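#lab-general

N.A. 3:47 PM
ok so I finally got the sequence cleaned up, no stray characters, all 76 residues accounted for. can someone with queue access submit it? mine expired

B.Y. 3:52 PM
send it over

N.A. 3:53 PM
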Amino acid sequence: MIRKCRETEVSLSLLLQLEQPVRCIGNVEVWLGELLVQQMRALHSIIHLASQFINDQEFQLLAFINESIAQVPCHT
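B.Y. 4:20 PM
back already:
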């Protein structure tokens, strides 16, 4: 049976949907590398959408914080 990864868990309650599923078959190094590429693409898309959302004149900070996967904690 061939498994396909379609999403990745990024926290306890959030799933990162991959733009293209990754076939988990063959050498582990190969498909893990492809999984990493797809994760980076999906994350890039989320960051791009967040950037557009923030630059909107109707931007609502609280809605963004509550709804967006793009928000990340800042550590000092």
